[in-house]
Amino acid sequence: MHFFTAARALLAATLFQAATAHNIVLPAHGRECFHETLHKDDTMTVTFQVGDREFGSAGNLDIDFWINNPAGQYEANEKSVSNGDYSFTAKHDGKYVYCFGNENWGANTKEVSFNVHGIVYVSESDLPADPLDREVRKLSDLLAQVKDEQQYIIMRERTHRNTAESTNSRVKWWNMFVIGVVIGESLFQVWWLRRFFEVKRVV
Prior knowledge:
Elements: H1 2-12, E1 15-26, E2 31-38, E3 43-51, E4 63-68, E5 74-81, E6 83-89, E7 94-101, E8 110-121, H2 131-202
Antiparallel strand pairs: 1-8, 2-7, 3-6, 3-8, 4-5, 4-7
């Protein structure tokens, strides 16, 4: 009987996790804000990665990120970041606003991929009566997390690929410039030597 009571108490304290993934285009000198309604003691996590949509581009990927609670206070306030992972526990019921700002970081448009993970307390009365339903819900949550992580990895891969392509392009053009300088210098030296010997013959 004690085991059954303990099991029920443990079941009542079960945490269900929901996760959503989003991709947004952050315009130059713009911002995008979103909100989540939380209850006290709920936990919320926001992870994000900034990328560039242009293939071969590796511009400035820094943005500002902040989270405001219902009292207008900062839960997070980060400047000049290109990725992040921020978690907090709600101290009040209400609307929590999180924003991505591109207002101070150049004129290029940036793509932001972000995931919002929320851990919500579920009381015993709200839990599915069928254990199979509970397992299906947990499995669904896990699959959603895997999908979100895949999208996050794709964004990071795109950012790293763009950086590598930009570096390779710059190296290529620099090498072509160096080759052009060497060829130009060689032609100048040949011209100068021919002119020098022509002057010698005239004298």
